[in-house]
Amino acid sequence: RIDGSRLWATLMETAAFGGTPAGGINRLTLSPEDGQVRDWFRAACETAGLEVGVDALGTQYALRRGRDMSRPPVACGSHLDTQPTGGKFDGILGVLAGLEVMRSLDDAGIETEAPLLLVNWTNEEGSRFAPAMMASAAYAGEFTTEEILAKRDAAGVSVAEALDAIGCRGPEPVGARAIGAFVELHIEQGPILEAEGKTIGVVEGGQGIAWFDGAVTGFESHAGTTPMPRRRDALLGLAELALAVERIAQGHAPSAVATMGEAVIGAPSRNVVPGQIRFTLDMRDPKSETLDAMETALREAAAEIGARRNLALQIERIWRKEPVPFDTGLVAAVDAAAEALGHSRRRIVSGAGHDACNLAGRVPTTMIFVPCKDGVSHNESESATPADCAAGADVLLHTLLALANA
Amino acid sequence: RIDGSRLWATLMETAAFGGTPAGGINRLTLSPEDGQVRDWFRAACETAGLEVGVDALGTQYALRRGRDMSRPPVACGSHLDTQPTGGKFDGILGVLAGLEVMRSLDDAGIETEAPLLLVNWTNEEGSRFAPAMMASAAYAGEFTTEEILAKRDAAGVSVAEALDAIGCRGPEPVGARAIGAFVELHIEQGPILEAEGKTIGVVEGGQGIAWFDGAVTGFESHAGTTPMPRRRDALLGLAELALAVERIAQGHAPSAVATMGEAVIGAPSRNVVPGQIRFTLDMRDPKSETLDAMETALREAAAEIGARRNLALQIERIWRKEPVPFDTGLVAAVDAAAEALGHSRRRIVSGAGHDACNLAGRVPTTMIFVPCKDGVSHNESESATPADCAAGADVLLHTLLALANA
Ligand SMILES: NC(=O)NCCC(=O)O
Ligand SMILES: NC(=O)NCCC(=O)O
Q1: Nearest CA of chain B to the CA of A198: how many Å?
Q2: For residue B71, what pLDDT is reported?
Q3: From the CA of A297, how many Å to the nearest CA of chain B?
Q4: Which of A80, A111, B342, B393 sits between 20 and 30 A of A9, alpha carbons compared?
Q5: What's the alpha-carbon Rg for chain A, to the nearest Å?
Q6: Cβ separation A207–B224 shorter than 8 A
Q7: Which candidate, A278, A321, A292, places its Cα nearest to that of A134?
Q8: How confident is the model at residue A304 (pLDDT cuts 50, 70, 90)?
Q9: Residue A159: how many CB atoms within 10 A of its CB?
Q10: For residue B360, what pLDDT is reported?
Q11: Ligand nearest to the CA of B128
């Protein structure tokens, strides 16, 4: 078994990098705070005797040697970046539980057949740079390294520039390092496990995701002198679209979700009718056909609103991640480990995207979920119990041992 | 008659301070660009032999001496600040036409009985600091100087700090300088004069204005894992409120207008359900009772949306300007000057707020409007013809002469 209090202590220790007054973490990918936690992580891994390498997208790999170094390593890990209103567990638990597994194996003097690998993937969150999970997508061959290096944040800074700004661009070619299997521990980020009183989620796959960038263009005019019928108010077009997006998701209840997360008025002023707004959309469902249907309905709604209000509504799909089934053998291995440890459990599908969803396209992959309070995530109040974190880390340990010694 | 081509040349010359690629001006009050045009204005006034003073809120006063210096000066002027998407005429025409009047009187060797005064009021637009027309409001006694100095922009900079940053805080106590009458030339900023083919608007008053600051508070949560019914999405609450505000104004057609000009999501991210939004509202009508009714309806709509969506909607009225009737004697003087010059004209009520609306609370005041293209203002494409600008300046000249020599 892992040491639950040591795991909890590292969770609390690293929460200081980007820690917020409300008890959350604001540690956007490749920010100075992300640089701090990366430095901490490298030092902690080296102290634990792991060999740390970094690839051209900044992803950190920490290797624990096995008896048979001809076998590809069995890997775990997640991410250390957060949302602007992030909590202390999303992604971080998966990385620090992996570190705790390595420390516990050392304490017990256990050597595995296959080597073990602990990974901290760059930009899982997708808040600063879109898409989410971009380094693991490049690892899996969904993008080239050059494509990812060229992505820019809202301030115009490229991934390449951001990597160099914190000195985190490594020498390893992305995807060059073989991985035999990948297991990611994560908080559920949803309400199901808690509601059912289950400790472990045995994750069967991830739902599909579509991301869009959009713009509404009207005409700036004087708030005091422009009669209502003459207005081309971009904010009112956006308002109707946001409500249409909600109705579209509700039309595919209970599985579908859709969110307008960002909306920025160009040159805003209190006494100017808004003329220009940029926005982003996120649509998800476990079924590919439902994603298709939602996108069609979105485009119809935008066309109707634009025509009626004399506005230009542009919508561009910038990313689509198909629903991902995980490896049935690995799912069974997680289930067996949870059973052996005596933890209550249920099968579950992930609502969030994870690096594991990308890895699944290249190597046998699965995930382990533990509950989080009220199902809340991407919020500073995100919370999980020490006992659940330890239970998840134990299941991770036993799953990795089973795979590495098989 | 004034020199129309000299007036046009000064309009085009000063348009370079904060000039935008699209042909407009972005010259927010007390910005470096506003500092530049203020320096230009002081130098131009001094070259024209005027005595320039500056008050504690940065308002510039340029005096042309009269035969009887015991009489309070007859004043004109407007403002040189603009909206972020401002044009080349809003406010600027009134100041530069005043300068042209002074230059033309010099050319013709005319001395007036009462002295003349040309004023450039600080922060008419209200875009950077609320409320609009704040220096003229302080002049008229609606606010103390200290209240205005303490107002802050969105970046937290106070008026006092902004004045000092461009060295524009003057020694004169605000309101200390007597004014005998005030006449402001301005573009109409609406479509009426153009539609009716009239050159001069004889302005009888300004409509009422109410400004509000508001916030919608929900709860940040994960865009992929939070089921639609569990969401407390602040952006959807804002969307419903924006559409309710539109309906409220439409319910008092055709006179009322209402605008949500600003809306800023706190900590926005594509895959986070928005939890916090700040916004501003602008509501106007020529009738005080209609302003009351709109505010009541606004608060009812906010309460209903908040209760239904489990959101906190806060709305604070930060400014209210009652409808203002102008001085009937001065209105008649403008009418007479326009008639004597042979310009087509009509009576009109101003949809925009103007410094004149504040001055009217302390001294006899009126305004002169000239048409602008398509009624468009607060837009970089704002446009007026050289002939209409010259006609307005001629009416200003003759109105000032009539008042100063009466
Ligand atoms: N796990 C997680 O929050 N990932 C961020 C990407 C997403 O929006 O699903
Ligand atoms: N004239 C003008 O645009 N004033 C700005 C204040 C307002 O919004 O009416």
Answers
A1: 17
A2: 98
A3: 17
A4: A111
A5: 22
A6: yes
A7: A321
A8: very high
A9: 26
A10: 98
A11: 2
